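Summary for the lay section of the report: proteins are chains of building blocks that fold into shapes. Here we show the chain for TF-B3 domain-containing protein and then a coded description of the shape we predicted for it.
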Amino acid sequence: MMMNTNLKIKIEEEEEEELFDDEGNDRLPISQLFQLLQQRQSISMYPKIMETWFPQQENIHDCRQKASRKRPRDKNYNDHVVKGTKRVSEQDFAKSPVIERAEQVQANLSAEFPSFFKIMIPSVVCRGFWMSLPKEFCQLNLPNHDATVILVGETGKEYRINFLVQRKALSGGWKKFSKEHGLLVGDALVFHLIRPSKFKVLSHIYIYIYI
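The coded shape description reads as follows.
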């Protein structure tokens, strides 16, 4: 380490000596000398300026274009979407085409039982993995105590998910379900209560939920 430091100092001294003659007089006019020193200083600061003004960021609004590709999708896709973005809520997707699609699905469902749809946001499919449900819907249609939810995928595979009544959310087990079904930020799921404590979920996937 000491040798590298001495070498650096020696090189800098040699560079400075080039600006002067053997008698210590300036070889260049003062104005040009000052300009040259400024140029050297700006070059040494350049990497820091680039890092400050050109950080790598992902834009949350790019996710729908990436989401249009065929599944299976990159398991790390959601992580890339979230980095460098602000806090995202369902309101950020208010004008997304997926909202219109979810509403169309709801309109074609039987009105005998209630339904709702949820947009997948980072806290649901990227970090935390809390699948919050509408408060009023939970109060009217779900048990008033913690329960186990069984999600049955179209392949027949079952997923046991914890429903927490205080949080009005699905928690333990939801992460595995989300990952295996390739849910992305911006996806929509439509939940249709087809009989007491039994849901049919429509959109990207088709599953049944038993409580």
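Put simply, here is one thing we learned. Residues 7-26, 40-73, 80-86, 204-211 have pLDDT under 50 and may be disordered.
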